[in-house]
């Protein structure tokens, strides 16, 4: 293998002094995508990537596309006898929003009809309480900016919109469908330069009026990086508002009685404030206030109280914390003489649903599930009943929707994905290994029958409390079918074992996450699953940071790396995209102690000349408004300069897509390139 001829990238003598530490930044000029020199460099990188010998690309493109022909289906949201859901058939690029009622099933919103180019995505939707109007949000080209519209459900005709600056906005309808609460950023002219992505507020909007006339309800004078939640009870009497600083694992929470104060000026009562816990509330049809919290319970608990006394001192445990399972959600079924509570759990990342007496919380049974997989979105009818719907998937089963009937105790398939695909014979085993400090960590390992060592992809995330639960993956199955092994490590920083598991991998404890990944790799090698020359790691976003740190800390341990939409310059990450909302997860370089955490592992700053680094593919997206591509650009340049070995450092730039949802065909091309790259550099032979 010969060393590639890399595009020339100048190294500037830029060194910042931060808290007495010299911080070099030779590629800062790559932070400006509009600079002609940067554009020329990126064009040259794209030419280099396209010239790479990736023999397996056509094979993986075809197989991943075939597996994705399973399509998809979402759990239904009910409004009376009308239900709303998404479905993607095998030939479609995006999920389509449908409504079904006594008149049959019909399309409400098809993103591809709105935009035949495939660049428009449906971000979210929320029907009003009667099911007569529906608010939906769309974005274009991956920017995730979420323009909000309202449509008449019966006719499909537009009612209003767009309202801009609605990224990550909930919509909380007031009964009658004439008004709703929502979250909108202040206009760019009202905020300091560079802070246009922040400064959210909660507003009350009257349908048909100008958003410029909306009444600001909440958020004035609070932290600029706050995210807000808002909801209204089914009867319209109760309002709840939550606020969290960025992605912090804690929130402030208030409720209001809209019968005692006007919707324009609700009198808020504190549920919790300045408390280090995450809490949400649900106003039950029985008049009780249900509280879902990790206060004093890292794995979560459900409490009850009266809406008139919402504070923690009045909470009574209904579902106490389980020492081994994480509480994920719940649903109330009251359409029978003895109402019950369905409670969703993940036990070491495997989904369960238990059945409890609603009044006492006593466990009285379990809901039958199709297998050992992931359960999501337990939903009941808002007005009550004896039925609940939830999604289910596992490593070889595409996501389907199931129905539970509390009268019969039966679980039945409600709707399967519309496509039929043949999946390879494969099994998944959950193994336990020990990290550097002795902590037990779990890992899901999927493979076909056979013995090792085999080419293996080790995937991880390890941040923001996000769990790595089992689920159908065209990427995994295509790799395993070709003869490889796919392992998913459930690292600290995630949510697989509750909030403490998350906190053991954030801020000053972030190195635990990287140690957990290194230990996973060493376990796979020690047990004969793979070998160093056949082991690859892959991760995106926070997982991109993970593999970036891994390749700079242990370049000897990995043969190949795929690093997608990564955070890599951890000294300047807060200055770009949504970075300022993540300092509650990572820390801030402005604070001396926290700078020391970041400086200890920041991948861009730990690239060393004369080191033989793994083959590395950076994949970034031009419309990514969360993580700026500059992280990958700067680190790719640094690695290309420093690489002492012959293994390539490549950069894949993709335009008109962002951090999140995209058309299926764009996903296929990305995965094909990534798998072909990893196959070439781990010795996986594909036909």
TrEMBL record:
Reaction it catalyzes: Hydrolysis of Pro-|-Xaa >> Ala-|-Xaa in oligopeptides
Compositionally biased tracts (Basic and acidic residues): 9-19
Positions of the Peptidase S9A N-terminal domain: 7-416
GO molecular function: oligopeptidase activity; serine-type endopeptidase activity
InterPro entries: AB_hydrolase_fold, Pept_S9_AS, Pept_S9A_N, Peptidase_S9_cat, Peptidase_S9A, Prolyl_oligopep/macrocyclase
Assigned GO CC terms: cytosol
Organism expressing this protein natively: Microbispora triticiradicis
Family to which this protein belongs: Belongs to the peptidase S9A family.
Residue ranges constituting the Peptidase S9 prolyl oligopeptidase catalytic domain according to the UniProt record: 472-683
PANTHER family given in the database record: PROLYL ENDOPEPTIDASE (PTHR42881:SF2)
Ranges where the record places region Disordered: 1-32
Keywords: Hydrolase, Protease, Serine protease
GO biological process: proteolysis
Protein name: prolyl oligopeptidase
Domain of life: Bacteria
Pfam family name, one: Peptidase_S9_N
EC numbers, comma separated: 3.4.21.26
């Amino acid at each position: 293998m010969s060393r590639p001829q890399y595009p020339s990238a100048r190294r500037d003598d830029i060194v910042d002094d931060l808290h007495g530490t010299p911080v070099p930044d030779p590629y800062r000029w790559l932070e400006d995508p509009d600079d002609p020199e940067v554009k020329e460099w990126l064009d040259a990188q794209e030419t280099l990537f396209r010239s790479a010998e990736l023999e397996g690309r056509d094979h993986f493109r075809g197989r991943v596309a075939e597996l994705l022909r399973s399509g998809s289906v979402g759990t239904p949201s009910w409004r009376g006898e009308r239900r709303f859901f998404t479905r993607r058939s095998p030939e479609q690029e995006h999920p389509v929003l449908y409504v079904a009622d006594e008149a049959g099933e019909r399309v409400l919103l098809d993103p591809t009809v709105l935009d035949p180019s495939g660049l428009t995505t449906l971000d979210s939707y929320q029907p009003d309480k009667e099911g007569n109007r529906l608010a939906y949000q769309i974005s274009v080209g991956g920017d995730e900016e979420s323009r909000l519209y309202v449509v008449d459900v019966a006719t499909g005709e537009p009612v209003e919109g767009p309202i801009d600056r609605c990224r990550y906005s909930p919509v909380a309808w007031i009964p009658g469908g004439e008004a709703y609460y929502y979250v909108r950023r202040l206009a760019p002219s009202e905020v300091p330069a560079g802070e246009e992505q922040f400064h959210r507020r909660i507003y009350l909007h009257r349908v048909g009026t100008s958003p410029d006339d909306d009444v600001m309800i909440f958020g004035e004078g609070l932290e600029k990086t706050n995210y807000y939640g808002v909801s209204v009870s089914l009867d319209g009497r109760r309002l709840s508002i939550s606020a969290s600083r960025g992605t912090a694992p804690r929130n402030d929470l208030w409720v209001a009685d809209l019968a005692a104060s006007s919707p324009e000026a609700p009198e808020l009562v504190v549920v919790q404030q300045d408390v280090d816990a995450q809490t949400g509330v649900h106003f039950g049809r029985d008049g009780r206030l249900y509280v879902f919290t990790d206060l004093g319970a890292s794995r979560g608990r459900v409490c009850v109280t009266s809406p008139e006394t919402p504070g923690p001192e009045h909470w009574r445990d209904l579902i106490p914390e389980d020492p081994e399972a994480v509480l994920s959600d719940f649903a109330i079924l009251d359409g029978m003489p003895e109402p019950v509570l369905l409670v969703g759990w993940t036990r070491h990342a495997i989904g369960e649903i238990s059945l409890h007496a609603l009044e006492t919380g006593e466990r009285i049974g379990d809901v039958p599930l199709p297998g050992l997989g992931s359960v999501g979105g337990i939903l009941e009818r808002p007005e009550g009943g004896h039925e609940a719907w939830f999604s289910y998937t596992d490593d070889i089963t595409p996501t389907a929707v199931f129905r539970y009937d509390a009268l019969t105790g039966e679980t039945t398939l409600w709707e399967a994905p519309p496509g039929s695909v043949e999946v390879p014979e494969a099994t998944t085993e959950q193994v336990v290994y020990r990290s550097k400090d002795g902590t037990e960590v779990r890992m899901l390992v999927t493979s076909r029958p056979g013995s090792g060592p085999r080419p293996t992809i080790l995937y991880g995330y390890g941040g923001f409390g996000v769990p790595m639960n089992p689920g159908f993956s065209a990427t995994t199955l295509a790799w395993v079918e070709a003869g490889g092994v796919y392992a998913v490590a459930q690292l600290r920083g995630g949510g697989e074992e509750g909030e403490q598991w998350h906190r053991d991998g954030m801020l000053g404890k972030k190195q635990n996450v990287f140690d957990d990944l290194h230990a996973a790799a060493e376990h796979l090698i020690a047990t004969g699953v793979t070998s160093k020359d056949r082991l690859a790691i892959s991760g995106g976003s926070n997982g991109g940071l993970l593999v970036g740190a891994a390749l700079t800390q242990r370049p000897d341990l990995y043969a190949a790396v795929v690093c997608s939409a990564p955070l890599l310059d951890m000294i300047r990450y807060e200055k770009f995209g949504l970075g300022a909302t993540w300092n509650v997860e990572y820390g801030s370089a402005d604070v001396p102690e926290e700078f020391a955490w970041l400086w200890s592992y920041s991948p861009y700053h730990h690239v060393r000349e004369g080191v033989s680094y793994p083959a590395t593919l950076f994949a970034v997206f031009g419309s990514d408004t969360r993580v700026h591509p500059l992280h990958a650009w700067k680190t790719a340049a640094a690695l290309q300069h420093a690489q002492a070995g012959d293994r390539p450092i490549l950069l894949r730039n993709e335009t008109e897509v962002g951090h999140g949802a995209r058309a299926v065909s764009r996903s296929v091309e990305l995965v094909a390139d990534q798998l072909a790259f990893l196959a070439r550099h781990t010795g996986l032979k594909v036909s």
